[in-house]
Description:
This protein is α/β, with parallel strands linked by helices. It has 14 helices and eleven strands.
Amino acid sequence: MSFNLSELNEKIRKEGTFVHALKQEMAKVIVGQEIMIERLIIGFLCNGHILLEGVPGLAKSLTVSTLAKIIDTTFRRIQFTPDLLPADLIGTMIYNQQKGNFETKKGPIFSNIILADEINRSPAKVQSALLEAMQERQVSIGEKTHKLDDPFLVLATQNPIEQEGTYPLPEAQVDRFMLKVVIDYPNKEDELEIIKRMAHSNSTIDVKSVIKPNDLIRARKVVDEIYIDEKIHRYILDIVFATREPESYDLADLADLIQMGASPRASIFLAMAGKAKAFIEGRGYVTPEDVRDVMWDILRHRIILTFEAEAEEVTVEQIIRRTIDKVEVP
């Protein structure tokens, strides 16, 4: 290895102390859901947006708002509805009668953390306005372009069950989310603890800030330094290309089930998330296990299935499992 591992590990130890403290504070409010919390941390470390999918009542919104308090940053929750307009999101030009000119009135998008609640309930115009903010980290109001603050993260939720009155997200927008995290029901023990904590008329739990935005930006620089071997890069490429060219990886039976394989963003995000996972583990290099751990959340919204797959009730998760099992681990 051409880098100083002990020096890098010391940097990770110094800049990564907030990870344990953050998880401890989150545990005061959120019972279980360790994977969701870790994926949110990965999103922050990689500057990547996250799509949270799960039925109502699984604490998706509570998790995001709690995280914003712990990171000590600005947070806005936007409830997406069918009558929402782009101006409600990004802002608009307002005429000032006293000065005789138009002034910019900024919308709620000008915050560090945006919770886009039930994002699929708004029409395409609103989703397009959010798209520029997510990709370019800027918004255009009138003739001016305004840069958004750093960090800027969109954490969007959608209900997978109720589809009436919804506008499914275009594939181009879904692809811009680094991770799609599917949240399941808690187990019986966790739900018992939830009842004990929350079944009160006043169930507010205070959490303290353990990290500032500048600390997070410094941590990102350390994540960038984490070593990823050429063999890991090749492993990532094999995984992604197996979803595009299954015949080349002895997965010919998947060819008729996959309409579209993972995009190049999947390759980029697998490498970035692998580094973030290594950082969370306090390690200065990426292992195949790091990549395999984050693979599900990066690939599940980038593999488009055919009608044949839907008819045979084949899921994306089954495709990913076959790919993981088949591609050789370095």
